TrEMBL record:
Protein name in the entry: DUF3352 domain-containing protein
Top-rank taxon: Bacteria
Length: 534
């Protein structure tokens, strides 16, 4: 069962609107009064029309009329006309997919609040449909829209149908974009100033029925409400089912099926130039317990300095990196970490990360990479493993500090003559109760710079200070690693396809924090995800 083109474009376009808005927000906030307000997260009154079992629901507060001005405010003057034109096309194209002409039908009366949902429709053949709630500031806007919209359909010779359903006047017509399936675009007015539009009449009727029974709607979904209470402020709310996470957001089946994942609830927040998702993954069953070693890991970070590209702070890393692990945290972060390890193709790194003693701090610096651990028994294990692979160990003095170096002599063919070279596999520097492993001397020396990592990188400082004790695993990725991670993500590929060009150079950083909290019945994975575009 596949989503139709509209459903794919729906989720991609939402992401596009948000990413562009927040990715350029730093400049917009400085140059114009178009500031987005992060307000307490609550369910809008229209949530009573959205069923609990909807695959994906997004409630937003975003002024789509001003959206092109957000873009125009920050691009160079010579590019503003083109930027505004392209942004208008994107916005109008999104509503056109729903059969609406934004500038003619909506711009004069729509307010910043709107909600949309993807819903599974049962029947002879299961399929996805959509439901859209558009709010106005008064009664006149929606009423005028309904009259002009449907009068035009009649004048155009469309087969317009009118039906009274539970005291709601439903208008519909057969969409010529789907002549074989005869899908009906349908609309009605609810709460005097809200227009409900859907891909077919059966969804609109279901929305009306849902509003009549509090037990069926998201507005009275106590589990959803309790999740929202754990969030602070934002401009939007995402409520995604297990099927949506797998089908639309490309989460691995190993996470969505084996771990009894129920849903994702997340807020969308503007935080300077960053887009922040703050949310909860809810599971029916408790997973294996990963012991928090956050404070011990932070102590390793606080003793380090120098500029960084990437950093990972991990409790019990061997559980996260194990591809056979059933723990949800391992399913979420494991692929990122394994990709790092596989790319380096290092026997020593495999041994370090497989240690059953945590924590572990992994830092990519300009000069190279270093790994900090608290496991003082590792050097013996790694020495044995490397010696069996032909490496020898040497002890040297570096600025009055002892370092151990594992290396292997090899023949290097260069021109007419062969040269003997010494391939260094890994270097160990021991300090107090910490082991610091690196791939070169420069990386280890860079770590000893006076200024700490947290002082040198404000975004990383905020990551470790604001996330509290919930977050045992934290990863901060700079431009190169962020671009690589996103390049293979299906929604990101679709997003770039909609835009028509690559966003690779716009990706500046990704920060992810996760941590588990659980009771005897279920497990919750708390997470923060920050994306910075430039």
């Amino acid at each position: 069962m596949k989503a139709r083109t509209f459903l794919i474009a729906l989720s991609v376009t939402i992401g596009l609107l948000l990413i562009i808005s927040f990715g350029i927000w730093r400049g917009a906030a400085a140059q114009s009064p178009l500031n987005l307000k992060n307000e307490p997260i609550t369910l809008p009154s229209t949530a009573k029309f959205f069923p609990k079992e909807a695959l994906l629901t997004i409630h937003l507060k975003l002024d789509v009329n001003r959206f092109p001005r957000y873009i125009e405010a920050v691009v160079p003057e010579k590019k503003r006309n083109k930027a505004r034109s392209e942004t208008v096309k994107i916005r109008n194209g999104f509503f056109a997919l729903a059969g609406l002409d934004f500038e003619r039908d909506l711009s004069s009366w729509v307010n910043p609040k709107f909600s949309l949902s993807i819903i599974k429709v049962n029947g002879e053949q299961e399929h996805f449909g959509w439901l859209l709630a558009i709010q106005g500031d008064d009664k006149e806007g929606p009423s005028s829209f309904m009259k002009s919209f449907w009068d035009k359909k009649v004048l155009d010779g469309e087969d317009v149908l009118q039906e009274n359903y539970n005291n709601f006047e439903i208008y519909s017509y057969n969409d010529p974009l789907f002549p074989k399936k005869r899908k009906e675009i349908s609309t009605t007015i609810v709460e005097d100033k809200v227009v409900l539009a859907s891909s077919e009449k059966v969804i609109l009727k279901k929305a009306i029925d849902t509003s009549k029974d509090p037990q069926l709607s998201q507005l009275n979904d106590q589990e959803l409400i309790q999740s929202i209470e754990k969030m602070n402020t934002g401009i939007g709310l995402i409520n995604a089912s297990e099927e949506a996470l797998e089908t639309l957001l490309d989460l691995p089946k190993s996470l969505t099926q084996k771990n009894s994942l129920e849903r994702l609830v997340a807020s969308i927040k503007a935080e300077g130039p960053e887009l922040l998702l703050d949310g909860l993954f809810k599971f029916k069953e408790s997973g294996t317990e990963i012991k928090s070693q956050r404070e011990s890991a932070i102590s390793l970070v606080n003793g380090s300095g120098g500029p960084i590209q990437d950093i990972a702070i991990l409790s019990e890393p061997f559980k996260l990196i194990d591809s056979a692990s059933e723990d949800p945290e391992a399913k979420l972060l494991g692929p990122i970490l394994r990709q790092y390890i596989n790319d380096l193709d290092s026997t020593a790194i495999n041994r370090i990360t497989n240690s059953e003693k945590g924590p572990l701090v992994w830092i990519n610096e300009d000069a190279g990479w270093i790994i900090g651990t608290k496991d003082n028994s590792q050097d013996l294990e790694i020495d044995k493993s490397l010696r069996s692979n032909g490496f020898s160990k040497s002890s040297l003095a570096l600025k009055e500090k002892k370092i151990d170096v594992w290396s292997k002599l090899a023949i290097n063919k260069s021109g007419k003559y062969d040269n003997i070279i010494n391939n260094v596999e890994i270097i160990l520097s021991q300090e107090n109760e910490s082991n610091w492993w690196g791939n070169n001397i420069a990386a280890l020396e860079q770590r000893l710079q006076v200024n700490s990592l947290t002082n040198n990188n404000k975004r990383f400082q905020n990551l470790i200070s604001n996330d509290g004790n919930y977050f045992d695993q934290q990863v901060f990725l700079g431009p190169t690693s962020s671009q690589k991670i996103l390049s293979d993500w299906k929604p990101w590929k679709l997003l770039q396809a909609v835009i028509g060009h690559s966003l690779k150079q716009n990706i500046k950083s990704i920060a992810i924090s996760i941590g588990a909290s659980k009771d005897d019945i279920e497990q919750t994975i708390n997470f923060h995800a920050k994306l910075l575009l430039g």
